[in-house]
Amino acid sequence: MELDNTKETNGTTPRKRENGLRLRPVLPDASGVGLPYAPVDWPKKGDVWTWKVGRRVAITGHFLDRYLYPPKRLHNLLNSGRKRGLASKLSVERYVQMAFPDADINAFFASFIWKIPAKKHSLTNVARAIFVAPSEELADLSVTEPQYDGLTCKAGNKKCNSLFAESESSSLVPLPCDLCCDEPHFCHDCCCILCSKTIDLNYGGYSYIKCEAMVDGCVCGHVAHLNCALRCYMAGTVGGSIGLDAEYYCRRCDAKTCLVPHVTRLLKTCESIDSPDDIEKILNIGVCILRGSQKTNARVLLNHIDSAITKLKCGTSLGDIWKVKEIDSAISAGVLHNGIEELEPSNHQDSLDSGPCLVSVLSISSDYQSEYQKLEYEIDQVLQALRKAQESEYKIAEERLDAQKNYLRNLYEQLDKEKSELSSRASGTEADALLNAILNRVDQIKQEVMKLKEMEEVANGFGRTPKGTLKKHFGLEIED
Ligand SMILES: [Zn+2]
Ligand SMILES: [Zn+2]
Ligand SMILES: [Zn+2]
Ligand SMILES: [Zn+2]
Fold first, then answer.
1. From the CA of 183, how far away is ligand 1's center (Å)?
2. In whole angstroms, what is the distance from residue 478 CA to residue 161 CA?
3. How many CB atoms sit inside 10 A of residue 406's CB?
């Protein structure tokens, strides 16, 4: 569907008729009731919608931040996370379709103007508004970066999400932040809060997560690479005090975000990629996120990804990897539904939650071939791991036994030397002392030989060697 049915308005000629409505440029933070920027008498006569703009202005002369508020009587239909109103065309569309399934969405959007032009004198502020950085820094940036042309964000990123008006969450009011956001070249829209490097928007931005938690009416909006988050135990399933179950923990605002919808999107993205290597890389992130989760939809999804990876490894053609049995697609539809839909009435969700459990059981027997391939792959992995474990045990044993052997050889050599010294001195206090030393040496050798005998029990494998021996002689702590 064509979403953008308002025509582009040139910033230099803001006064222009559109849809028969007169466009009145407004100041930053302005708000208003009804036409031209919000619908009236919709859906019922007397219903008046309100609008509000933020401070940022796009290069086209329109406000980047633009909110639409439904009439008061419909407020209870808004999700609690959307107290600030609907911030993008997409969220308006979802809201309208959820609340009024029969409504003509095109007619709805045609009844008012979506893009709100900024007043002339606020246009002179365009660069500053978009750069956010103080003006000295602007000058600085253009000197240090010779290829600089056109708009970039504070981090010097031309592709930063904050520069695009239609990006849903970037048009919400950002959380004031004096941690990372005070740094001169840090942009919370495109710099990872864990490594400070910019995020990559390739393949639908699968590699990063944006925190969309609302804090005191502002959106957190900080982003992080998923790999960074996984490495820091801030994503996936993590025990302990953080306690995550297929979630992301934002270090900036302490909010947790469920990552199942992200992985669902990531899987969808893979269907349109034609590089097996890239697909595998993306799927592996999905696996790391979902592994160990107790959530039913996460486990079903993981099952799905595992089978896709197996097929990929077996050289299945890319088209066939995504072909799933009907029952599987029913599950994934359920997962997608639970995951992505935001404006769903909550009772609907409940009825879906109880469903997938049974369905996931059914799916295990429904696709025995892929299950079998999976088992094969799993066993292969186990055997490889066993071989590795045995190799490392062998190495440890070899090292320690050799060391003990060398130690004993030194002791024997020492004993020989002491004996020959004694034979050259027949009597006297010196001879007595030497004799004592020799007796001690013999005791020492006896003890070390006993130790070696204990160590030799590893011949049966570390698994059958007493734990005390492993700990004492091989430095291995084995837990029960
Ligand atoms: Zn920040
Ligand atoms: Zn940026
Ligand atoms: Zn990072
Ligand atoms: Zn956050």
1. 8
2. 50
3. 10
> For residue 248, which ligand has an atom nearest its CA?
4
Centre of ligand 4 from the C-alpha of residue 249, in Å: 8
Note the ligand closest to the C-alpha atom of 181: 1
Strand partners, 63: 57
**Strands 214-215 and 50-53, bridge-based pairing:** unpaired
Q: Which helix (H) or strand (E) holds 244?
A: strand 244-249
The rounded distance, in Å, linking the Cα atoms of 62 and 117 is 4
Starting at the earlier edge strand, list the strands of the sheet with 66-69.
31-33, 50-53, 66-69
Which ipTM was obtained for this model? 0.88
Cis-peptide into 36, omega within 30 deg: yes
Ligand nearest to the CA of 182: 1
From the CA of 267, how far away is ligand 3's center (Å)?
21
Q: Tokens 């992995």 — which residue?
A: 381
d(CA 354, CA 381): 33
Q: Which ligand is nearest to the Cα of residue 170, counting in written order? A: 2
Q: How far is the CA of 411 from the centre of ligand 4 (A)?
A: 64
pLDDT digits (tens, 9 = 90+) for 319-350: 787 775 444 554 455 444 444 433 333 333 33
Residue 197 or residue 429, greater confidence: 197
* Ligand approaching nearest to the C-alpha of 180: 1
Contact 257/236 with Cβ under 8 angstroms?
A: no
CA separation (Å) from 376 to 30, 81, 279, 307, 382? 63, 45, 21, 12, 10
* Residues contacting 294, CB < 8 A, separation 6+: 237, 245
**Domain locations in the chain as residue ranges:** 17-123, 259-366, 386-474
State which residues have CB under 5 angstroms from ligand 2, the bound ion.
153, 155, 157, 160, 187, 189-190
